[in-house]
Design goal:
Length: about 750
């Protein structure tokens, strides 16, 4: 599709991503003609000349190596200069393009800039000077190939995208509970058994109807595949960092070699068909470390880079706590608890890697132990405080926070592909500053987990154009970053991705709802677009908007339950984006105080309780954790409402399901009580389920009360694949309406 956004591309905002540190355009209208150009380079730069030649689609004879320029035809000269002040320098004149790199890596980045200019501006380039230097030393992308396997050609396609955006570290998540993807000669069962699972959960792994597709999923990389990909990455100046996640996320490994598990595990290991955090962990006995030493010795030869990621995240220590071997290690090493045992495990693997001249990288979960070797590089995903803790303790840190999780939704449109959860829109990615807390932070990385990303088009959709935003916050000086300027470049970036055959998301054009204020019996709602020149059309009857729907002009005053849908349209009245919903429901309890209590009526802390009376039921809206109150491991509990004043009402409802993309658990029953004084309670009745909305309601004769209590009976069990046992199901609670 053409991204028909009527924005004039100002030549002062070139269609580049990442944007250069310094860019100065000549005060003239002169142009350099690429179609007539000849590339001149020394033999040592031949591969960069060929990359440029192929991208510009020049005639074969238009590359001259170790040759003097002849004639007056336009020339592109490639040179190295170790004394260059910047990483690379690109000067485009009327008849000469001079590209100079401080070394070959910087030459490669300069070539990428020139290619981007040519792809977006065509054969006639403006005269300009670019002097460019990277902001962050580490600019990374993580790809999970365990949950869903991606063949060699797909991985190379990802590396091409990284190269285009000047990213230089590929974090390759090769193993997890759902599959082992790396051939190791010493342990053939790792791929013979560990690379195969009998099926995959078809919906969200935590849903009540999480059935399997019964389609075997398999795949692994041979050692030759690994060499091929590592070489391909090297040619693009990308370091490959393999991840072998330990000691948790090890179901596939333990299925192949169960002798490495704690022998007290109640169920045998298996390659997991569901997603989550499982109890299967490696045992701390000495034979485990002997196994790992052999494994990493073989792996180290395949990956010449300095780093190996060893995970260390989300380790359930249930088996360790009752494992005789682990408890013996704990006593022998004078370790205080299982957290220290976790640190001991990481310490042992770190030493194995150090003996192989490799440095360990771990997720910041490992900071919970106080016996962590300072040489471990930390990837911080659990919040900014963890990153600051790591810096204080002397660790090198790479920021990879949830705003950079590219498997999250790009917008809340009903048209977005299904995702695990979360919301990481392009603007939030761009506005994130990885160096906010310290200039000593090494860099930044985006993560793509593939539980629900099972095809290359879906993967590209998740990456683009967020990869451009990541590249810019990693490369461009903070003082030069501007969301407004970047936003103006988006149409050109999307056109370039489309021209190159990539499946990019247009989610940035999806409008956003914003509740301006709430009052008695109303909510006032505004619509906003990052592209104000695009008209927004909306409906209030639950249907998709068209060019014939109402045009948004001013905030909407909503006084009754209304399901709104809105979408941006291009200037020729064609849809420019997906459609975003918002369910607005003014009612008596809106904005009132909510408290949660256990079965003994003791107050309990539950996140997001205030969302239960915000007037925005989540029915028909993309599921987002922060919009729901989650009650876990409780077989009964109470939710109390103070309506502020005595209210007369006849209908009460509570949401337990109904969000797009999820099928959540229902309680056994919900009994409603009313009171005038919070002491004397009268039973008003039981809520009745209403399908398919997911709301439970009670309609009766009018009642008059100030206080309401919802007594929830959740005395039921479900089988948890993560815990390998029956558990009380988690209950997500949505808006409580009183009318």
């Amino acid at each position: 599709m053409a991204y028909a956004v009527n924005i004039r591309r100002s030549i002062t905002n070139l269609p580049l991503a990442p944007y250069p540190a310094h860019c100065e355009l000549a005060a003239n209208d002169h142009r350099f003609n690429l179609e007539l150009a000849t590339i001149y380079a020394n033999q040592c730069l031949s591969e960069y000349a060929e990359v440029l030649h192929a991208a510009l689609d020049l005639p074969k004879h238009n590359v001259q190596l170790d040759a003097e320029r002849s004639g007056k035809s336009p020339a592109i000269a490639l040179n190295l200069n170790a004394a260059l002040d910047s990483d690379y320098e690109l000067i485009i004149g009327v008849d000469t393009v001079s590209l100079t790199g401080r070394d070959e890596t910087q030459m490669f980045y300069g070539v990428q800039t020139l290619i981007q200019l040519a792809q977006s501006l065509g054969p006639y380039l403006p005269t300009l000077e670019i002097r460019d230097t990277a902001r962050c030393k580490y600019r990374g992308l993580h790809l999970d190939v365990s949950r869903h396997f991606y063949p060699v050609d797909n991985v190379k396609r990802v590396l091409d995208l990284m190269a285009m955006h000047k990213l230089n570290h590929f974090h390759w998540h090769l193993v997890d509970d759902q599959g082992w993807r790396l051939e190791i000669d010493a342990f053939p069962d790792l791929v013979k058994t560990g690379s195969h699972r009998p099926g995959t959960v078809t919906k969200h792994t935590l849903d009540r109807d999480n059935e399997l597709d019964n389609t075997p999923h398999r795949g692994f990389y041979t050692k030759q595949d690994i060499r091929d990909i590592v070489a391909y990455a090297k040619a693009r100046h990308i370091t490959v960092i393999p991840e072998i996640d330990l000691p948790g996320h090890s179901s596939a490994l333990l299925t192949a070699y169960p002798v490495l598990a704690c022998h007290n595990a109640p169920t045998p290991p298996r390659v997991q068909t569901h997603f989550g955090i499982f109890t299967q962990v490696l045992c701390n006995r000495e034979s485990t470390f002997t196994f790992l030493e052999t494994l990493f010795t073989e792996l180290a030869v395949l990956f010449p880079g300095p780093y190996v990621h060893i995970g260390g995240d989300e380790v359930k220590k249930t088996h360790w706590d009752s494992c005789p071997d682990c408890q013996q290690v704990l006593r022998d090493r004078a370790l205080s608890n299982s957290e220290a045992l976790h640190g001991y495990f990481i310490q042992r693997v770190t030493k194995i890697l150090a003996n192989l001249n490799k440095r360990a990288i771990c997720w910041d979960d490992v900071l919970d132990s106080d016996n962590l070797d300072q040489s471990v590089k930390i990837m911080s995903w659990l919040g900014e405080e963890k990153a600051c803790d790591a810096l204080t303790r002397g660790h090198d840190v790479i920021m990879t926070q949830s705003k950079l999780y590219f498997d999250f939704y790009q917008s809340l449109s009903i048209d977005e592909p299904f995702a695990i959860h979360g919301h990481a829109p392009l603007k939030e990615v761009y506005n994130y500053d990885p160096l906010e807390h310290s200039d000593t932070i090494q860099g930044v990385q985006a993560n793509v987990w593939t539980e629900y990303i099972d095809t290359m088009p879906k993967l590209e959709y998740a990456l683009l154009p967020r990869l451009a935003a990541l590249a810019e916050i990693a490369w461009t000086p903070k003082s030069q970053q501007s969301w407004t300027a970047f936003r103006q470049r988006i149409p050109a970036l999307l056109e370039r991705y489309e021209k190159l055959g990539y499946h990019a998301a247009d989610s940035v054009f999806v409008p956003q709802f914003n509740v301006l204020d709430r009052g008695t019996g109303y909510l006032r709602v505004a619509l906003h677009s990052e592209f104000p020149q695009l008209p927004i059309y909306f409906t209030s009857d639950g249907t998709r908007p068209t060019e014939g729907s109402s045009a948004y002009q001013q905030p909407l005053l909503i006084t009754e339950p209304t399901l709104l849908h809105a979408g941006c349209f291009s200037t020729d009245n064609k849809p420019a984006s997906g459609v975003v919903p918002l369910f607005v429901f003014p009612h008596h309890a809106m904005g009132c105080k909510v408290v949660a209590k256990d079965s003994a009526l003791n107050l309990i802390e539950i996140d997001h309780l205030n969302q239960l009376t915000n007037g925005l039921p989540q029915q028909g809206v993309r599921f987002q954790h922060a919009q729901w109150a989650l009650f876990e491991a409780l077989d009964s509990f109470h939710i109390d409402l103070d309506l502020r004043t005595t209210q007369t009402f006849s209908t009460i409802s509570v949401g337990f399901d109904g969000a797009l993309g999820r099928s959540l658990y229902f309680p056994v029953s919900v009994t409603v009580h009313g009171s005038q004084n919070e002491q004397d309670w009268k039973v008003l009745g039981q809520l009745q389920p209403s399908q398919p909305t997911g709301r439970w309601a009670l309609s009766s004769a009018e009642h008059t009360y100030r206080f309401l209590r919802f007594s929830v009976d959740n005395r039921q069990t479900i089988y948890s694949f993560e815990d390998a046992r029956d558990i009380i199901p988690p209950l997500y609670v949505d808006e409580i309406t009183v009318t």
